[in-house]
Write a structure and sequence with these properties.
The structure is a homodimer. Chain A has about 350 residues and is of the alpha/beta class. Chain A has ten helices and 13 strands. At the A-B interface, helix 1, helix 3, helix 4, helix 6 and helix 7 of A face helix 1, helix 3, helix 4, helix 6 and helix 7 of B.
């Protein structure tokens, strides 16, 4: 018989994060990482950090960082929550806000962590299929539910929705908490942050990992009305009071204050993205209109899995999902112009084979 | 009527972390922080960190850091788990290992987060009172239970237990997971890490916040058999794949490799502690034998709460717990010799009032 103590182990499917290649020569377009380094101000904050102070615990309330966030987003510090990456923030939101017996709802094709957190925290959930054009049908969300979570723009489809969509969603959902996950919003999509002042049951989450090139530091945030943020803080403080470390706070604060560098790099990514989408379409690809730092594409006469696998042999890494409805699509992160030139050259090579 | 969406909020008592004073002139002996800076090697790792790489996600498996930990603790990398401070590691352990219908058990006087996590994760729990001398009675733990968590040394009592205690505890508890929380172990207590090779249901947790002066960075760990670590990784990866950031990993790796500095600073804290305990006893205090970086003390003819409050007016911060059985005790963190001289001078002043 098996040992009795094994009965007490959590029975969970191991979610295995994608392995990062050690090879420095690959063109890495598989993790939606930013091709540009973080703000020089953020780098300076780390490399000149007074490390003697690390013997002390961080400021659990992250006051200075929250102040800088509040100024940037035109809200009050009490409207801002900070966490260890937006996965930490979203996981805490699920625990804080999804405590109904009714199912929470989200699209069938979306961020893969949502069902994982539902299973971890025993939250019932239900999916609404995206339309055939991969758009979210907002009218699906008029049904009674235990909460809503929608990424805007959605991933991996890259499609963003505007203010009218969110207003409609909020009109349908007045009795539950609505989370809009804005991980990619800075790349040209409408942000609902201003609407948190109008809808007190709306919470916006975001990350410094994409548009701010700080994936390696783990900074995520939520913005919403004071009451929601207080519940989120209470849950966080019941889990781990000090999730954002002192060095990350210093770098995050420097990054959010450096608006100029942020706008320049985001704009470079957008310019590259538009030019690559145009080239892909000229090559016969169907590429959705992207408001993110990635491109979601397919090609009528190609097996996208084979294409993905072949690119890997050429040291160009993109992303393929072996999932219903999107198993002949790929997701391509927008890199530098030089990286995208290699990607396009290899793509042409594949098409001419 | 209250808004319906409020029904979905998590109903939780806000656990409010202690506020850090902004005043640089206080003698801060209230948070068990180390008075010495982190290893110069750890500081160098941060201040010379190649921050361009922060645009990429951290290594979710923390391979290099785990390798260094394995070498230090004489185990394999697969026996090591890393997290965002030991609170994160312990919270994940509670979710991973305490899934029985039976109550988990821990002492009545112990780390205050244990009951908080039990409530957060709906884990039933039961306390066994410490003996009158504040020792844990290991025979209490012979009863059937859903899991055991014990800090060794215990906090805030500062008392540590030896190998025989742990072996007896493991003999009593063969059908559940036993967590030994070794946050303070480096200050002179027996570590059960070697026993994880003998008892496959034993898990040891620890932190870089105390003996390694890295509270500001958030690094915690667990050591145990491969199967337990794999379950812990599965739960972690279902919550947030990237809890330890790239800068923290680099600093943690440098710290664990710098054995000499570690031993020197730990030894300084121990020397100061022993001398302060001697002086306090000479002043009529009852101070327990400490195997930690703090002193747990009372005085027959003193109201310890008044003493604590008065010290605060003198800019000397120690810790007072308004809790049953220990409400006439204080916890004093061991600072530098200079800080402890001020503390003792003020204490004599108070006694002579």
């Amino acid at each position: 018989m098996d040992k009795l103590w094994k009965m007490n182990l959590r029975d969970i499917d191991p979610y295995v994060p994608g392995e990062q290649s050690k090879d420095k020569n690959i063109v890495k377009l598989n993790a939606n990482e930013n091709p540009y380094p973080p703000s020089p101000k953020a780098i300076e904050a780390i490399n000149s950090f007074n490390c003697d102070g690390l013997r002390l615990y961080p400021d659990a309330n992250a006051s200075a960082f929250k102040q800088a966030m509040a100024e940037y987003y035109n809200v009050q510090p009490q409207n801002v929550f900070l966490g260890n990456g937006s996965d930490d923030v979203l996981a805490l939101c699920f625990q804080a806000f999804f405590n109904s017996d009714k199912s929470i709802v989200f699209p069938d094709i979306t961020y893969s962590f949502y069902p994982v957190w539902c299973r971890l925290f025993n939250i019932p959930f239900k999916n609404y299929p995206l339309n055939d054009d991969f758009r979210i049908n907002v009218d699906d969300y008029a049904e009674e539910n235990g909460g809503v979570v929608i990424p805007n723009p959605n991933a991996p489809t890259s499609l963003g929705e505007g203010k009218d969509f969110i207003e409609k969603l909020m009109k349908y959902n007045q009795d539950c908490i609505v989370i809009i996950d804005e991980a990619y919003v800075d790349f040209g999509c409408y942000s609902g942050v201003e609407l948190t002042k109008k809808y007190e049951n709306l919470i916006i989450t975001g990350t410094f990992s994409k548009s701010r090139s700080l994936a390696g530091l783990r900074i995520g945030y939520a913005i919403g009305n004071k009451e929601l943020i207080a519940v989120l803080e209470a849950v966080k403080n019941s889990y781990n009071s000090y999730t954002v470390d002192s060095v990350s706070m210093a770098a995050g604060t420097a990054s959010i204050k450096d608006k100029k560098y942020f706008e320049e790099t985001v704009s470079k990514v957008i310019t590259t993205r538009e030019s690559v989408i145009k080239e892909l379409r000229a090559l016969g690809f169907t590429a959705l209109d992207s408001q993110t730092n990635f491109i979601f594409a397919t090609h009528d006469s190609m097996n996208m899995r084979d294409y993905f696998e072949w690119l890997k042999t050429q040291k160009v890494f993109i992303r393929y999902f072996n999932l219903p409805r999107i198993d002949n699509h790929v997701r391509i992160t927008v890199g530098t112009d030089e990286e995208m030139d290699i990607f396009l050259k290899k793509t042409k090579e594949y098409l001419n084979k």
